[in-house]
Amino acid sequence: MRVGCPKEIKNHEYRVGLTPGAVREYAAHGHQVMVETGAGAGIGAGDDAYRAAGATIAKTPEEVFAKSDMIVKVKEPQPNEWVQLRENQILYTYLHLAPDPDQTKGLLASGVTAVAYETVTDERGGLPLLAPMSEVAGRLAIQAGATSLQKANGGRGVLLGGVPGVLPGKVAVIGGGVVGLHAAKMAVGLGADVTILDRSIPRLRQLDDIFNGRVHTRYSTVEALEEECFSADLVVGAVLIPGAAAPKLVSREMLSGMKKGAVLVDVAIDQGGCFETSHATTHADPTYEVEGVIHYCVANMPGAVPVTSAHALNNATLHYGLALADKGLKALVDEPHLRNGLNAHKGRITNAAVADALGYDLAEPKAVLAA
Fold it and tell me: What angle do CA 327, 332, 334 make, to 5 degrees?
């Protein structure tokens, strides 16, 4: 198969869909790989490194899209990219379609077979291609929140770890999944006073065991959310419903009860955000203020640390990417967990959460693949 990797063009996105090491694996499987010139610059991988791994270098993104049977990316295609996609071509990347009707229309119009990293599953019910970026984003959320708390950046002027004789900052983490776990690890490491809220009692028990009493765990109710948000210096939104739009758990009204200069970091912003007042920002202009509360809502947080995140992402996506390249659509038929990643195929929506969020009729994946 002809596999193409264009350069990412989203604002301050420095990751790359294929590292030279991943290219070498595709080449070893007998596939032709084309990489756009400069695609790996953000991770320090020049064109020569890709040539050495077995890739050919394309001068333009148009050449990559036109000559490839499968496109491997990191972020969702931008408008000038989705118009280059076509039927009988596979797109393998993060999509986050539920809060993005325009991109969804573009992909459906193209007829492309779109496989989304964020809805591929594993035998334990986890999201293995989302997990590494969730780990990165969870850890970054505390770094970003701590920086935003500095007075010069509009925050309260609180040091999360405190100092002897001064209480540490308070951190509330909404959601105890992969993002929440890693955010809490970073916050605890800085010495903050941390509370994790979740609606799964078994998960709260597990988190209590993991942290051995170093964090507070609390069952998430409206009352609990209000109390924790009102007392927090930093709130991390880490709630995920696979494929679906994130629930709005913190209302605009609640902001009036929060401390002035407190910080909200919405890691769920790719799925629409879990704060009512969230809207996507970029690394170039990451924060804004509503009701005296600083919002950090960067939609591609791991792009800030591309060396770490690109390699972590490629480690996770390589197995299924090779399966798609080796077997084409048959890989989606044969592997149910990969098939869960199929979001669109020949103008039809094939993911239930996306169909429900955007009002499309659902096409059952097995049926459309068989047709």
Answer: 80
- Verify whether residue 270 is a known catalytic residue: yes
* CATH code for the domain defined by 2-119+306-370: 3.40.50.720
What gap in Å lies between CA 190 and CA 359, rounded to an integer?
44
Per-residue pLDDT of the chain (371 residues; tens, 9 = 90+): 999 999 999 988 999 999 999 999 999 999 999 999 999 999 999 999 999 999 999 999 999 999 999 999 999 999 999 999 999 999 999 999 999 999 999 999 999 999 999 999 999 889 999 999 999 999 999 999 999 999 999 999 999 999 999 999 999 999 999 999 999 999 999 999 999 999 999 999 999 999 999 999 999 999 999 999 999 999 999 998 877 788 999 999 999 999 999 999 999 998 899 999 999 999 999 999 999 999 999 999 999 999 999 999 999 999 999 999 999 999 999 999 999 999 999 999 999 999 999 999 999 999 999 88
From CA 353, how far away is CA 351, in angstroms rounded?
Answer: 6
Contact 10, 300 (CB under 8 A): yes
The CATH class of the 135-299 domain is: alpha beta
148 is in an annotated binding site: no
Determine if residue 334 is labeled as part of a ligand binding site: no
67 is in an annotated binding site: no
* 315 is known to lie in a ligand binding site: no
Residues 6+ apart with CB under 8 A from 359: none
| Domain range list for the chain | 2-119+306-370, 135-299
> Which of 31, 96, 182, 345 does the annotation list as catalytic?
96
Other Cβ atoms less than 10 A from the Cβ of 163: the count is 9
Q: Is residue 15 annotated as involved in ligand binding? A: yes
What 362-366 contacts at long range (C-beta under 8 Å, 24+ apart), as own/partner pairs, is 365/332, 365/339, 366/333, 366/339
Whether 96 sits among the annotated catalytic residues: the reply is: yes
Identify which of 206, 167, 207, 199 has the alpha carbon closest to the alpha carbon of residue 183.
207
135-299 has the same fold as 2-119+306-370: yes
298 marked ligand binding residue: yes
In this structure, what token pair is assigned to residue 300?
Answer: 């591609």
Taking the C-alpha atoms of residue 269 and residue 303, their distance in angstroms, rounded to an integer, is 14
Candidates 31, 233, 270, 295; catalytic one: 270
Cα 85 from Cα 98, distance rounded (Å): 20
